[in-house]
Design brief:
With 399 residues, the chain is α/β, with parallel strands linked by helices. The protein folds into three domains: 2-58, Alpha-Beta Plaits (2-Layer Sandwich), CATH 3.30.70; 68-258, HUPs (Rossmann fold); 280-398, 3-Layer(aba) Sandwich (Rossmann fold), CATH 3.40.50.1220. It is built from eleven helices and 21 strands. Helix 7 runs parallel beside helix 11 (382-398). The chain is globular and about 65 Å long. It starts with a strand and ends with a helix.
Amino acid sequence: MARLLIDKEACTGCEACLNECPYGALEMKDDVAIVNEKCTFCGACVDVCPVEAIVLEKEEKEVEGLDISEYKDVWVFIEHKGGKISNVSFELLGEGRKLADALGCKLSAMLLGDGVEECTQEVISYGADTIYLTENPILKEYRTDSYTAGAVNLIRKYKPEIVIFGATTQGRDFAGTVATTLYTGLTADCTGLDIDPDTKLLRQTRPAFGGNIMATILCPRHRPQMATVRPKVFPMPEKDDSRKGEIIREDLPISEDKVRTRILEFIQVAETVNLMDAEIIVSGGRGVGGPENFVVIRELANVLGGAVGASRAAVDAGWIPYEHQVGQTGRTVRPKIYIACGISGSIQHQAGMKTSDIIIAINKDPEAPIFKIATYGIVADLFQAVPMMTQEFKKRLAR
């Protein structure tokens, strides 16, 4: 329950809050700001009020019997398919190790499935001290009910302080259901995780308001603290096959008749683009000018053995399918080389590619934001620069 209160006596009618509100939830009446039904209680207006006339009151429901001091350790959910662990789980183990070291606690993994014990040593090699393992034929394939039952059983029994998931299709569905069942908070699509040195709370950073600001979110009154993180946001940790760890096995507290869904068939759809694993990506933006002009982007990508990416502007214009979109609302990528052609470099696009090893930017505008994060910048018309690069690479690769 939340309320946004405006002190009519203190309000000076400066309209600073109107300009700050991203939802148009504030308006003026008789030279005093008032709040309408569009308010989401985000609090953006509170900090900008120069006379402190706006107060956000929030009443948080406490979980009965919750003792925060009982919760400890950092957990990572291990996602897998066909006996292979998703790379995002290893990336999160690397980041989880940092969080656990900052808290002086253990890093644990939560592994659910059927016949997945053979994966445990690999999980330990990437940093886990303990693995909480639940195996059951019901868990052979991911289903929301069965996986949630397994996870909630483990979390309620062993009380982790922090649980992080990959922001994959499965992870988003799973984490949201687990958080709702446990009545705790969940921050989605985080781009940064760290421990506050004063409160020891998990600081969860993510883009907000369309990527125009970066929000840092805390969960002080509920446990566990939960977050999802996109693949490729964090680097892969080093693997150490000499590491040893503990495996704790628990049964699944649900039977097949309690699972509301059945898997009848898997239909394999050919993927047209694989940006996630590409080592080289050539992306086009608004500067490409139209769908027919993406041919120059594709030619360079083909010569380099890379994938074709795009900015949101190009996708929204209908020039290229969504599967190619890089950015906050598209894919997060971490290639060795990222070539941005005709992309200005909005914060939304940067959120999806700024961790690339090498960024090459080609843009006619020398003031384009993309140049601020580029390893190499070329101020030029992409229709001159890109074909020249393509021809030069063809020559060199033919030698």
